[in-house]
Amino acid sequence: MYLVDYHTHTHCSPDSSAPLANMVRAAQAAGLRELCTTDHCDLQQEDGSPLGDWDWKPILDQFEQAKVPQNRDDFCLLLGIELGGGHTDPQRAQKLLEGVPLDFVIGSVHNLSPAAGGRDFFFLDFQEEALARRTLDDYFDSLLALAPLPCYDTLGHIIYPLRYINGRSGHHITLDPWQEQLDQVLGTVIETGRAIEVNTHNGREVEQWRPILERYRQLGGTRVTLGSDAHKPENVAKGLDRAARLLREIGFSSVTLYRQRQPRQQPL
Ligand SMILES: [Zn+2]
Ligand SMILES: [Zn+2]
Fold this sequence. Notes:
Elements: E1 4-5, H1 20-29, E2 34-42, H2 57-70, E3 76-84, H3 90-97, E4 104-108, H4 129-146, E5 154-155, H5 160-165, H6 179-191, E6 195-199, H7 210-218, E7 224-227, H8 240-250, E8 254-259, E9 262-267
Parallel strand pairs: 1-2, 2-3, 3-4, 4-5, 5-6, 6-7
Antiparallel strand pairs: 8-9
Helix pairs in contact: 1-2, 4-6
The protein binds zinc ion (2 copies).
């Protein structure tokens, strides 16, 4: 199986301390054919304030240093970014991506909308179920704003708030009440030729993707990227074999790869 990990972080992200070289070694040890490094560039900071000055240099320098010695015939290291909150400042999002030799861009929403306070979902306490539902209303408004914008190639971890709402606070909320919004988001992704991501959250979330993938396929979606969201070497590739099997089971025959932001289908 041609396995790739298209969602990984290094110490260039505020929530990781891993050097890229260690992530690459872990990817090669796990038998991956491609590793795409996708550090955070979030237009909404954790507390909701807008991104300040941004410098690509640490990411580009690290990538150049790792690429030359590591790339082999059977392995390829790619440069990506996880661009968060692009819909909060679409012009800045476009500007940030200009002139950078990126292979791939994940578009993510990690925060409430600025009007709702803008905080990262990670810091919210979802004990109260009504707050969880209001958060999902707000989240889908954000996804609907992000979906048509050109500042991403794959829509990152669509089920992200459920990590905290169900995973941490113990609710059993499904996305069924937001089916209409979800369909609209998926429809826009398909019409504009983009992909959705199956994000295994370090191997913890695979089966949770089934309803989204089934609906995406029904609507005509074909492009899917795979990522572990590893922030440490030991989590690289976690759950990707199961995610690939799930894709096949649902009827997808390929995974989407990127070079210079151009998609290509690779048979699974
Ligand atoms: Zn993310
Ligand atoms: Zn991430």
